[in-house]
Amino acid sequence: MCAKATMEEFEALLNESLEIDTPQEGSVVKGKVIAIEAGQAIIDVGYKMEGRVDLKEFANPGEAPSIAVGDEVEVYLDRVENARGEAVISREKARREEAWDRLEKAYASEERVEGAIFGRVKGGFTVDLGGAVAFLPGSQVDVRPVRDAGPLMGLKQPFQILKMDRRRGNIVVSRRAILEESRAEQRAEVISNLTEGQVVDGVVKNITEYGAFVDLGGVDGLLHVTDMAWRRVNHPSEILSIGETVKVQVVKINKETHRISLGMKQLQNDPWDSVEAKFPIGSVHKGRVTNITDYGAFVELEAGVEGLVHVSEMSWTKKNVHPGKIVSTSQEVDVMVLEIDTAKRRVSLGLKQCMRNPWEVFAETHPVGSMIEGEVKNITEFGLFIGLDNDIDGMVHLSDLSWDKRGEEAIQDYRKGDVVKAAVTEVDIEKERISLSIKALDADTFSDAVDGVKRGSVITVAVTAIEDGGIEVEYNGMKSFIRRSDLARDRADQRPERFQVGDHVDVRVVNVDSKTRKLGVSIKAREIAEEKEAVEQYGSSDSGASLGDILGAALKSRE
């Protein structure tokens, strides 16, 4: 009975001893290096257990192993015993567990951790954080894209943990956050020492299309392209280069965003202060075309002073042409100052004012009545446009094409490109209009034919044609038509057939229309007029004489 109790007590003590002394698999234990052989360290972890660890597990990335016999180290116990009776241990896993405990505390307190970049992977780099491997995204390496990360490899430096998941073994760190924080502190210190209007030296760090970034000693300022010079600068690279030291003025400081605006032109005299004195209105100057737009061209009068030549002030004759077809960039031109607005820094210029008005020149060289010769440029429903000297046109209205034909008929005789002669009838310089006449070159047959003929005159005409509706007659080459109702006073005599071609007949002129070029004549009107005249001379209403007696007396008197 006593022996049995003693055995139970011994077994309990043995189990208790094993529970206390035997380390648990998956934990970190302390050991001692008892030998180094074949690239491995043999470590005694106690409890009559030994294990082997590759020497490379004792080395930091990029460094040689630092281990010697007798050194005490912590290792991770994977298994108590393997097939060879040795403990399976790992220094790397021990460091990892130790590192994770340390990193979790740092992540919770938002503290920086130290590490070294030792490898490149897709999308970034790997960082050793003293046993734990973290991922450093490419965008988190620096505040600006890094083209060559070689100088950063193996260098111990601080990092900020952005994210970590121990279960998945993921850690994401940032070097950029550290740089931005220190940069912000540095910026705040530098900005606190700067004042608006202060002149400082800086180094051009980067050039873009809209300006250049200048390092003022730890803080960058933006030098906008419009603040580089008073003149137009198409691209900052025209006057700046990376690495160049420049003198700039602090134009504006935003204390909240820490943005600094710089200027170079502010250190030079403003050319606009003397614009009115140098370029008085009405004066002519040489300038260089710097830019061409749809609405005109910009001309530089001097460095920093540009004026606009509006498209309407570019040419006397080219009205609907793009400015690029009149002038070209960098071309030197003569311009006249038309208007100056110093408040808005605008100068209105004129190009055409430096050339004589072609309508004035034409009026001087071609007075009214003179003859011109030109090519038919265009044919419209209201007349012809004739090309003249100095790229101007004159117009021949339909009514000025022919004496004998209607305008609509006469215009059919002309084609675009025909060379014609015409007489100048009017020059309107203000309206830029020149009126021409083709028919004025020929004599007016109608005017010549009816010269001296007035309404009420009695003339002798020759019958040229007999028609049902009347007869056609001719007077000095001008045709006229007498309707049947105008052939006689008496209805019975209103017969066209009683006339023959070649007969000469006295008629009374009832209308002379120079516009329509028509001469209206009537036999009936002549007879009525003669009857009235006879009554007035040879009879009265109370004489008792008959109309036949009166007419007979009138005829006898004429005989």
UniProtKB/TrEMBL annotation:
Alphabetized UniProt keyword annotations: Repeat, Ribonucleoprotein, Ribosomal protein, RNA-binding
GO cellular component: cytosolic small ribosomal subunit
GO biological process: translation
Residue ranges annotated for the S1 motif domain, each copy included: 26-92, 110-176, 197-265, 282-352, 369-439, 456-524
A GO term for molecular function: structural constituent of ribosome
InterPro entries linked to this entry: NA-bd_OB-fold (IPR012340), Ribos_protein_bS1-like (IPR050437), Ribosomal_bS1 (IPR000110), Ribosomal_protein_S1-like (IPR035104), S1_domain (IPR003029)
SUPFAM superfamilies (alphabetical): Nucleic acid-binding proteins (SSF50249)
Superkingdom to which the source organism belongs: Bacteria
Function: Binds mRNA; thus facilitating recognition of the initiation point. It is needed to translate mRNA with a short Shine-Dalgarno (SD) purine-rich sequence.
Protein family according to the UniProt entry: Belongs to the bacterial ribosomal protein bS1 family.
Protein's UniProt name: 30S ribosomal protein S1
